[in-house]
Amino acid sequence: MATSTHVVMGQNPPTEAEPKYGGFTRFEIELEFVQSLANPYFLNHLASQKLLSEPTFVAYLAYLQYWTRPPYVKYLNYPGPTLKNLKLLQEERFRQEIISPELVQALAAEGMKASVDWHKDEGL
Predict the structure, then answer these.
(1) Which domains, and CATH codes, for the chain?
(2) Residue 119 — pLDDT band, cuts 50, 70, 90?
(3) What is this structure's pTM?
């Protein structure tokens, strides 16, 4: 996470007019990363790599809270689970417990149920 050091030190959220990293803007990279937080299996992977106990990474997760506010929230494809998990990741207990396969399965099942319910409500 090359950007985590300078963003934690008080940088503002990215803008559209910025340098590219590997052909992508910081905005695009952070958008892709924050959206991946909707996936409980990815959260489990982060925990298994011990990233969720690294102070710098935890600070990066706190920095990503800007995605909860306009204008950034409108760019999220799955705002419900993305923002829910981003909020949960602010809690140390959740960062420790997401290593549990049972919690991962429960979150995945909850997401599937929410998706099915949404489609029923929409008449699809």
Answers:
(1) 4-122 (1.10.10.1340)
(2) low
(3) 0.79
